[in-house]
Write a structure and sequence with these properties.
This protein has 13 helices and four strands. The chain has 326 residues and is mainly α.
Length: 326
Amino acid sequence: MFLKLFNCGAKFGHMMFLRLISELQVRKMGKSKNINVNKRDVLKWTQPMDDILIDALLHQQSLGNRVDKVFTTMAYENMVNELHQKIGIPIEKGHLKNRIKTLKHNFYECYDLFKGRSGFAWSPDTKMWTAKPELWKSKPDSKKWMTTRIANYDKLLMLFAKDREKKDGAKGGQWASSIGGGLFDCIPLQDVLGLTMEENDMNDTSQTDSQAPSQSATSLKGKKRKAPRIELLERELKSIREAIKDVADAIREGNLIAERGRPRVYTEQEVFAELVNIGIDTQLRYKAYAFLIANAGRVRALFGCPAEERKEFLLQMMYSSEDSAY
């Protein structure tokens, strides 16, 4: 009787223990879900926000803060600060990366559909693609864009068109042309092994046919041993690709730092254009142009000033007795 009671008590205790563990797991999952929801930053992008972002991307690209199709860390820092000031809400680097992916996706979809198709045109007024009705009927895969707007397509062309052309022009099975450009991505794993899968199958088949039936089991074991070897090589290649990408990123950052250390050299065209921008009168413009290009230090001093103060600074340089300091 005592043993029966003991067994019943043990079973009851075991059930209570399992129930307690189950409840703890449910509570833990609930907490983790709440944490994920709290940590996730949901940002709804509007068209004015997209306009500001795309202009910022073009500006950073013109400054040279985009290397091998990748915006540098400095570019993202500048854009985060610029968007925060203009939009008035906190912006993080992750927000920018996610939105850039979306903009790229929409642009690539249009670019792939309409590149080289005569009769289709993007209107900067309506922000939509236009064409004759018969052309839309002949291209059913593009009907979505009859009623879907894509703003800033002309600016997205300047940002991402070259990237798409390079991607389309790449041929599979060839080495990447630059460090960090996906080295080993286009090389079939069978080529690295030095033997195609078809050759493996043929060798296994010929061995099986030439050997006694009792040896077929050995052949099957050999095939099974090849699978872990392939997986091992795949992991090794993946680690090599990641290492090469890290080296490429370091080289890009190093090149960027080296470029920043060198003084900027302004062309004569840039100097003349700046004289027009700051409002130098035509009668004085040629004299100011000759004055500046005669000395590179004067040009650097001019462009080093804030844009709104350059005109006054230039006039002081030209007419001051301290001109020799420049």
